[in-house]
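From the shared-data thread, chain only:
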Amino acid sequence: AIAVGLIVLLLVQLNIPEKWNKWLTWALFIVNPWLAFYMVEKVFYNPISVMGILSYALNVIWFYIIFAILLLIFNRVKYAVIVGNLLLYGCAVGNYFVMQFRGTPITPADIWALGTAMDVADHYTLSYDKAAIVATIICLGLCIIAWKLDTIKAFRWKHRLAALAVVVVATLGQSFFCTRVNFLEAHNVKVEFFNQKKGYKRNGFVLSFLLNVQYLLGTEPEGYSVDKVKDIAKNYEVTTGQNKNLKQKPNVVVIMNETFSDLNVVNKIKTNKEVMPYINSMKENTIKGDMLVSVFGGGTSNSEYEFLTGNSVSSLPLNGNAYTQFVKHEVPSLATQLKEQGYDTTAFHPYKPNAWNRQSVYPLLGFDNFLDESSLDESKVRRIRGWVSDESDYDKIIETFENRKSDNPLFMFNVTIQNHGGYLLPDDNFKQEITIEDEKKTEPAERYLSLIHESDRAFKKLIDYFKEQKEPTIVVMFGDHQPKLEDEFYELLYGKDLNSLNIKEMQKKFTVPFVIWANYDIKEQENVKLTSANYLSTLMLKQTNLKMTPYNQYLEELEKQIPAINANGYVTKDGKNVATQDEEDKDKWLTNYQYLQYNSLLDYKHRVDSFFSVKEK
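Structure, as tokens:
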């Protein structure tokens, strides 16, 4: 009925006296920011009525500033209202869909990942719920009313310059006020570092987004200097892995399995059959355990950055992405380290090469070759839900291994894609074998667990192949993050409201499994103490006879003090979970770790190269 009314309003010619038209136009301009504020929050169920007074006021001021800037640009109220409402509505709807995809809202760092988001969007099911429809009607109504009011110019040039001065002062003042972190936190206006969804709900979309901006740029850690890095570096040296009986350099195959996780780490799920029977059965020459990653539901490349470099994205700006924002020059990594020891280095991802800027990043990390989806023979590829299956992915690994043109050992880093998000709709070409037999039963969760079951089967095929190979080979497989399933499912899994989780409980959503296996003798370990992605490559290297950098040796020592770390916080050696924002006196080990990472990634012109290399000094 409202939509029909809007159409009628659009078609009807309004004959309003010029004086009334002018007053109505300015009335619309005064009221519009409040309605736009309501519209934006309505899209994703943010009840503005429960916001604190300060959050509410800051949001309204920002909305007035946005529309005032547009008014200065167009000098017409109707164009400012129409463009502003459509812009804000577009941002709100974009955030609505991002929340559906990965469970966390848009932050400033996502601007660099827009291309990747658009690439994968067609694999998701998009739908409007009631709140989004209401917001759409509000937006259309405001735009139509503004269009029907035929207004004169808002300002003459002299007045326009005065208005510009007022807007500039207001913008600078508001921006400065938003950087007064201590004052704002005292009034419950703060960035929720490890629960952005909670922060956006309490502070509002626009204010939360702008509060995050100040954490966007990589800044030099307090107290950093190259001399301090050199002082740390002099205590460490090039070492070798612990497997002294291995006389030959092993091939290294690393698989970062897209959205591979064991949800039982949060809470037990009763299923009709075992989800990962093969991986759970692996014992001989196998190391297994769980590790923390820094992302949930998306942000895949941050997990591979942590594995490949030994760095942690906890040292990057809030919600930053290493690949899209910071890897713009050569960065030492596992690939450069192995290349120094005679390895051929190949990266493989069966999707578009520009995803997460990989086509530019991989050469900077030391990879000689990058195989993307164009390297596949489509006639031999099996797809599940439109994504290349793990089985076809592993077939390409085997093909690459068999078709090597040199006698050099191979380092292959593979990012799979089979289990990528978008679990709402079934696939007629994929038989779901897993059903949930308790109160946690939902179709998307069963679909996801069935995909993991398929991954387990494919992994067995790959391991069986390398068991028959004479060349020593070590295989590492780990997940990049847990899946974005409905909040209702995770609340059933936890048995409580997600906004009430403490840091220890929250970290369970950032926990994934890893497996290290070799076709030669290594010391078996099961249920390894919780670690994190930045330590995993060092753990793998220890199972070889390869040279390890002084940085690897440092990471071994760091792990004894800080066994696991991610963007949310870290675990102390006595098992205490510490959230990033709760940390008061920074541990000296963490401070030094920040210095080393900054030197490796950002202060590359003064990088202490010998610390990140296996070349003898």
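The chain has 23 helices and 15 strands.
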